Amino acid sequence: MKYACFGYFDEEQFAKVPQDKALAMMDDCWAYDDDVLRKGGHYLGGEGLDSPKNSTTLRYQNGKVTVTDGPFTETKEQVGGLMILEAKDLNEAIRLISNHPGMKMGPWEIRPIADMTPMIKASEERRRAARS
Amino acid sequence: MPIDFEALYQSESRRVLATLIRLLGDFDLAEEALHDAFAAALEQWPTQGVPGNPRAWLVSTGRFKAVDAIRRRARFSPLEGHAEPADPGADPGAEQPELEDDRLRLIFTCCHPALAPEARSALTLREVCGLTTEEIARAFLVGPSTLAQRIVRAKAKIKEAGIPYEVPSRSELPERTETVLQVVYLIFNEGYAASSGVSLTRADLSGEAIRLGRLLVELMPEQEALGLLALMLIQESRRAARATPEGDVVLLEDQDRSLWDQGLIAEGMALAGRAMASSQLGPYALQAEIAAVHARALRAQDTDWKRIVGLYDQLASLVPTPVVALNRAVAVAMAEGPAAGLALVDGLLAQGGLAEYHWAHAAKADLCRRLGKAEEARASYQRALDLAGSEPEQRFLRQRLAQWAPK
Prior knowledge:
Chain A is α+β, with helices and mostly antiparallel strands. Chain A has four helices and six strands; from the N terminus they run E-H-H-E-E-E-E-H-E-H.
């Protein structure tokens, strides 16, 4: 099963961590990604994200799109990175993330990836029918 | 000779269900299969005789009928494909000597932390204990459709999030076991709190929790499971004594101990002893032992409060919550006098965590009363009354207010 895993962190708190300690934490995270997730055949993809300060949010209200500065949620904890993992079931996904050094930086959300294939196929057929 | 299908259902249906869930990979399919298997037994056994291994017969019959039903459905609606049963290669007739009982798999699945807490209790009572949705709804005082939705949601989550039907691995076992015990104790407390003056149609939740506790002790060599069962048995032993016929609260110190069920106490104390023999004492073992110390006292004044304080010291180090600290303070008051207890309670109230907890104010009121501080006693009883939840608790506090702190 595929799972999307979102790692959250408090940017303000993390900025207070002395640089050598912060780098060591990142080293641990990347080492885990390589040694456990990639080598174990679990790593399907992922990215570290830039600061939430550099986010832009779009909303559709009253018939038009509004663009604002900042992330969608006004919370202290924001998404710092995401991974797509392959795990045989939720317990394995929980194990993989529980042991991730990134757990020390903040909470993680594990959400199954929906298989949209049947819906996409049906949509293609509807659109094909509409064109003909 | 008529076959006692009622008794058979009581003793076998849960185990058969647990195995069918494993074989079919789906709760609803398994329930249907269970129903079909028993229907077939009712039809065939009176004429063909009871099979040598009834459970294996029920499992294989249920499985066969489910696979058959899936194939028939697939023919009519090819897009709606159910996965093939999880274990198609297995010999349907043989009862595999599983290293772990399927019931354990079922319990850990129903109590999975990825399920909402209310969902865990509801699902456990439904699938492990076999209560109907209506019974569970009445027991938790929610509408039946609300409860039914809760269970549907839980089963959907299990499927969609990929919660596997398994006993957790060694490394996860301690934490996951704790979750299971929590669910069981929650169910027990729902029944315990609802003991007096409540309608007779509420299911015996405490009884179900104890049954679950026994099952856990049977299936897992886990010290805390022993402790939990011990605690529940000893608490249950006081059922007849802890409320008046009108449904009023009777405190432990005022209870008629001749009404305590000595059979439950004996069993509970034996289990508490075994739980306490562990090198790593857990919170349930300690709470059970505290209950045992109370149970050993023939009269309230014979209670070994010093030992109870010592046990609370250990419990507080494992479970450093304000409520445990409060209970310890009450024990200290009994062992060393109300002044010592009041100092602790005042300290806890000052910390803030117990400000909205009516028992904290009731405890303070009682200690003030014993020290002759009438004004403070009255004020604290009033505060407790303002915060109190249930009718019986309110009546109790109003009575105290009138009795001990008259204007």
